[in-house]
Amino acid sequence: MLRKLFSFNGGVKPDPNKGASTREPIARLPLPPQLIIPLHQHIGGTPRPLVKVGDRVLHGQRIGAADGNVSSAVHAPTSGTVVAIEPRLMPHASGLSSMAVVIEPDGQDQRIEREPFDWHAATPGEVRDYLRDAGVVGLGGAVFPSHLKLSPGKAGGTDTLVLNGAECEPFITCDDMLMRSEAEDILRGALVMQKMLAAKQVLVGVEDNKPEAAAALKAAAAALGHASLDVVVVPTRYPAGGAKQLIRVLTGIEVPHGSRSTDFGVQCFNVATALAVWNALEHGEPLTRRIVTVAGNVDRPRNFDVAIGTPIGFVFEHAGLKQDTDKLIMGGPMMGIPLPGVEAPVVKATNCLLASSPALFPPPEPELPCIRCGECARACPADLQPFELYWHSRARNFGRAQEYHLFDCIECGCCAYVCPSHIPLVDYYRYAKSEIWARERDKDAADSARERFEFRNWRAEREKEEKAAKLAARSAAKPAAKPAATDKSPAEGEAAATPAEDPKKALIEAAMARAKAQKEAVAAKNTDTLTPAQQAQVEAAEARRKLAADIVATGSGETTSETATADKPTE
Amino acid sequence: MISALLVMTGLALALGAALGAASVLFKTQGDPLVDKIDAILPQTQCGQCGYPGCKPYATAIAGGEADINQCPPGGDEGVRKLADLLGREYKPLNAEHGVEKPKSVAVIDEATCIGCTLCIQACPVDAIVGAAKQMHTIVTDLCTGCELCVPPCPADCIDMVPVAETVETWKWRYPVFDLKPVSTETAAKEAA
User: Fold this and answer.
1) A295-304 tens-digit pLDDT
2) Stretch (H or E) spanning A105
3) ipTM of the complex in this document
4) Which residue from B minimizes the CA distance to A443?
5) Domain that holds residue B144
């Protein structure tokens, strides 16, 4: 059946550079001497560590538990000993550190006993919880917890499940190699997802520069024999692998600003995520390894099956990093982020490690003024006006940038790629986005502080009122009691008054006696009996104190101030 | 003549009734300008402006009693925003009220704390937990960094600690580099 394909606006056609790393099959990388497993590797809450320093962990053991539902678990990729739980350098543009569990592998790779889980019989909710605890997150780069995306939407349910095997960014081939070798399991994972989403069809989108992967998928689909499963080859154009762009190409649905693809009955997953779902459910294997493309300025570009937590330097050693490498990038040349150092570990988001050299990626030419040619708007696959976003971001006019839908920008880099003035446009958008997020955080904090402050004032006011009301009630009660007393005979009144006064007096006296007793008990007893030597010490201290006080008062000479500092070393 | 008068009177009555109803139905509570100013202020409630909280300062600005440059936690950006909102000229922060500092939070040295509750009473946002003769601690997420708890502490055990940047709060840097004039010496050296 020939499927009608659609097209998205814009896009560019950079040199794919995918040949070098697809020559050899995926190699399993040996374990490094130390695994650094960051606790926070996904969108959402930071997992709580479940292990202590010195603990022995097993392959597949959960070392970080999901913090709430919008989070995902983290597991040990092999057996070994936890040697540290401390902040370590992250593969993040900031070069900052974050909490990580450091494991020294013992070489035995002893597996934890699998908890039996019959996903065929389990409810969709149980399967979602299982996937959360298996640490399955989107492996296309966004690392969004997959279990959150696996529920049929409210609006009429899901119609289409799109499996993203487009892999449009240059140099990256990890999905390509995975589709060639694991096509059947990928599709089995996709069928599980289809069942959970109650989707009518599954469309696997593969760019036409990956004929081997497409052929493998088609053969596997034929073997599985599901009519609703369709492998679709889409034209190669960057960024066809963007979720919204691929949905547009496959279904013709254009997801408008402010809504999600699920509102239109379409859900999108990466092919590697489908395999992770299958491995978790069928083999009880949590997400502890992933395929990483090592490419660029290396001797042996290749795809490696890497344990999560392997230091990036260790991966590059196996690929042979060339001498003239000037920069390391995580991700591709279009959207990748610069790596702060080789000590940073491979995380769930690491699809590609790219070594850059001046010959491979010449340093950017100097930025020139925008000439308003409009090339960026023609190239933008999100149908935005990049030049407007640029001006407003540069002028720190964030409100206007948001009016031009800054947050619909997918940071694909097409605009910067075509810009004749070599403006690093994406840097401006990233700057504006992070500033806006920071402002929103500040605003939320200010709103909560205002609320708390107002509540505190209200509480103080209420307490004051209550006190006043109590006083008023008491003073009202007294005159009311007095006329009652005058009604009785004078003698009776006196008799009534004395017992009323007496307990009060007695109470006060008792309290005073208690206070006196306490004072005596608490009063320092060590000054009563002093030896002459102690007495002399006390006197010397008193003299020094007096001297210090004099110095403070007069601010006099050097020798005395020295004594003063010697006397009060803590100040 | 009579009909014209009647029409005019009728119109006047109808419009008057409509206006009266509108003034009752769409009545604004408080001064909207004060709320707008208050929304810009950082809500630290520190009192450095000379007013007991952000709202009173906002009221004072709206009333023309206070200037717009008296809020150090709001910083330069806060002054600019206020100037924008009120259509006034920007002026630098008044040093009399303090200087802009990086955002900090108070931290109690729990070993030294004697449990006097003075800081709890001073905290404007109820961010300190504790009781008499019990150790106190600060809920970092709620602390606005107003420093009001520091002076009352008799044991001097509260420190202001700047908030460190984390991977989650890190911001991309502004991509524009400031042009700096090269001194003639270095220029001559480079030429040589």
Assistant:
1) 999 999 999 9
2) strand A97-105
3) 0.81
4) B42
5) 102-166
